[in-house]
Design a protein that fits this description.
Blueprint: H1 3-22, H2 29-48, H3 51-68, H4 78-93, H5 115-134, H6 140-147, H7 153-160, H8 164-188
Length: 194
Amino acid sequence: MSSWGAIFQEDDEDRIIAAQIVSGQKELFRLLIKKHERAVYGMGMSFFHNKEDASDFTQEVFLKVFSSLSRFEGRSRFSTWLYKIAYNTAVNSVTRMKEYQSLVEDEIASDNDTPEREFFRNLARDAVLEAVIELPNRFRVCVDLFFFYDRSYEEIEIITGYPVNTIKSHVFRAKKILREKLVAYTSKSPGGAE
């Protein structure tokens, strides 16, 4: 199955679970929490910078999602709808958008990392961080949603309310900086031309 097929199947599963919850099988909500809790918590860490506030934020978001689940119409992916609720909750909870801190500033490690993978992950992380730092604070979330939450431009527009062209511009800038850093690295590596 292609990755697109897996995404559509995943979306269908979320829609089915949401419909079952609305029809009275409320205990199934734990499945949606389990599936999306880490992403919502990550967004909470980006905005609040500490585990306690991020946990409180995560609970608040899922309470809002549960209470408004009957209004999910399925016109977008369930995760997009959920992230929009999370984003709006976070924005309304912080006093200034400049308090947002990109997820790229946190260490994202894997148990299966080899030294080479870790090196390239850190190189990419540093490049994206450099790109994010150059962006206006209120648009940093766009880069996070694109690179770390795998959202499309249209989904990011739905979540944040920012115009697609603005989102594309910031993501393009982040990609350009990442490309330049990788080219600079490969030209300095033992196999690269100097």
